[in-house]
């Protein structure tokens, strides 16, 4: 049985395990993430990184926003895709009202997050018209808008190039 210990913004996953077809694949995993810390899980394809991320997220979903490996963008406009990031914390009636008539404060908050991922000009665009990289950035924006203290991304940036004119945060050294 995994233990989850929360100390401030730190999350510690101890003695966790995962299985595939009844066969242990990740036995005795311990992982600690502290406030402000950035970690990367790396391994060959099929080594269990996504399994570990799912296990970690599943232990404390109320403290983590997840950017899934595949961009899960719905057909509604970009605003609604990002705004869904907080729907679990609001009543169904509130969500329905805001789906029909978004509040100005919600629009401003979503615009601010979209600006962070280089999509401020796509607020009302239909999600189905976006490129694969733009859809991935909408998934990142949804997780940022969610506002949980821990952001977990499963290959979140692999398909999302930075917008033209913005530096690539994953590339070291001078950039054109």
Describe the protein's architecture and organization.
The strands form two sheets. A three-stranded antiparallel sheet has the order 1-2-3. The chain has a two-stranded parallel ribbon with strand order 4-5. α4 (104-116) packs across α5. It has helices at residues 49-59, 78-83, 92-100, 104-116, 132-146, and strands at residues 3-7, 10-20, 23-33, 64-67, 150-153. Helix content is 31%, strand content 20%. The chain has two domains: 3-59, no CATH class; 78-150, no CATH class. It is elongated and about 50 Å long. The longest helix is centred in the C-terminal third of the chain and has 15 residues, at 132-146. The model is unreliable at 1-7 and 169-176 (pLDDT under 50). The protein is α+β, with helices and mostly antiparallel strands and 176 residues long. The relative contact order is 0.15. β1 (3-7) and β2 (10-20) form a beta hairpin. The protein contains five helices and five strands, in the order βββαβααααβ. The N and C termini lie far apart (50 Å).
Q: Helices, strands, pairings?
A:
Blueprint: E1 3-7, E2 10-20, E3 23-33, H1 49-59, E4 64-67, H2 78-83, H3 92-100, H4 104-116, H5 132-146, E5 150-153
Parallel strand pairs: 4-5
Antiparallel strand pairs: 1-2, 2-3
What's the gist of this structure?
This protein is an alpha+beta fold and 176 residues long.
């Amino acid at each position: 049985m995994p233990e989850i210990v929360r100390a401030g913004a730190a999350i510690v996953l101890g003695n966790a395990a995962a299985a595939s077809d009844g066969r242990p694949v990740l036995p005795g995993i311990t992982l600690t993430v502290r406030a402000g810390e950035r970690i990367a899980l790396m391994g060959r394809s099929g080594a269990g990184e996504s399994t570990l991320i799912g296990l970690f997220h599943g232990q404390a979903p109320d403290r983590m926003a997840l950017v899934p490996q595949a961009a899960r963008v719905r057909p509604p406009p970009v605003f609604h895709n990002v705004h869904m990031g907080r729907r679990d914390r609001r009543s169904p009636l509130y969500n329905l009202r805001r789906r029909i008539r978004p509040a100005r404060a919600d629009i401003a908050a979503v615009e601010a997050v979209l600006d962070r991922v280089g999509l401020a000009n796509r607020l009302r665009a239909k999600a189905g018209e976006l490129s694969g990289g733009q859809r991935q950035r909408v998934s990142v924006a949804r997780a940022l808008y969610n506002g949980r203290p821990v952001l977990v991304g499963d290959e979140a940036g692999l398909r999302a190039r930075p917008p033209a004119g913005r530096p690539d945060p994953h590339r070291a050294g001078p950039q054109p």
